[in-house]
Amino acid sequence: MDDRKIQIVIDSFLPMVKAALQYTITLAVISFVLGLILAVLVALVRVWKIPVLNQIAIFYVWVIRGTPLLVQLFIIFFGLPSIGIELDPFPAAIIAFTLNMGAYNSEIVRAAIQSIANGQWEAAYSLGMTRGQALRRIILPQATRVSVPPLSNSFISLVKDTSLAYTITVVELFQVAKQITATTYEPLLLYSEAAVIYLIICTVLNALQNVMEKRLSRFSTQ
C-alpha cells in the first residue's frame, strides 16, 4: 500500500468512527429499545389472543416480515410525504427500524413466553396472583433468560442493517465511507475500512453477548 492510500485510511478512520458512534450505534440502540417494547406488546396480544388486536398484530407481523427493510425505509421516507407526512431522515430511519425489530422480535418474545410451562401460570394463580402479576413476577423473568441469545443476535444484525439508512441520507458509517470514496476514488480501500469497523463493533457486541449468556446461565442454575 502506497503512502497516499495509508494517509487516506488514517484520515478517514476518525470520521467513520464518529459516524458509527453518533448515528450507527445510536440508531441501532434507540430502534432496538423501542422495537423491543413494541415486540413485548405484540407478543402479549398474540399470546393472550386479545380480540381484534390479535388480528391486527398478526397482520402487522405478516406485512413487516414479508417485505424488505429497504422498501419499508423508502415507504416511510419517500412515500409518506405524498400524503402530507414528512419526516427527517433520522426519525424516519428510527420508525422503520423500530417497526421491523418489533415484528421480528415479537416472535422471539412470544416463543419465549410460550416455552414456559403452563404449570408456572397455574402455580402463580394458586398463590392468588392476577395474570399481570404472574406475567411480571414469574413468566417474564424466565422468558427473558430464554430470549436473550436470539435478541442479542437480532441487535447485532440491526447494527449491520443500519447501513441501509444511507439510502435515505442518514449520515451513518456507510454514508461517510461513500462520501469519502467520492473524493478519493478509492472504493475498495474505503469500503473495506468500513467493513473492518463494522466487524470490530460486532465482535465487541458478540463478546458482550457471551458474557451476558454466561451470567444468565449461572443465575438460572442457582
Over all CA atoms, what is the radius of gyration? 21 Å
CATH architecture: Orthogonal Bundle
Number of domains: 1
Largest β-sheet summary:
none
Q: CATH topology, what is it called? A: MetI-like fold
Distance between the termini: 55 Å
Sheet-strand content, in percent, reads: under 5%
Structural class by secondary-structure content: mainly alpha
Low-confidence sequence ranges: none
Q: Helical proportion?
A: over 70%
What average pLDDT do the residues reach?
93
Report on this model:
The chain is mainly α and 222 residues long. The protein has a single domain (3-221), classed as Orthogonal Bundle (MetI-like fold), CATH 1.10.3720. It contains 8 helices and no strands. Helix 1 (3-48) packs antiparallel against helix 2, helix 4 (89-114) crosses helix 6 and helix 6 runs antiparallel to helix 8. The longest helix is centred in the N-terminal third of the chain and has 46 residues, at 3-48. The radius of gyration is 21 Å and the shape is flat. The mean pLDDT is 93.
Name some characteristics of this structure.
222 residues, 8 helices
Topology:
Layout: H1 3-48, H2 53-65, H3 69-79, H4 89-114, H5 118-126, H6 131-161, H7 173-184, H8 187-221
Put the structure in a nutshell.
Helix content is 82%, strand content 0%. With 222 residues, it is an all-alpha fold.
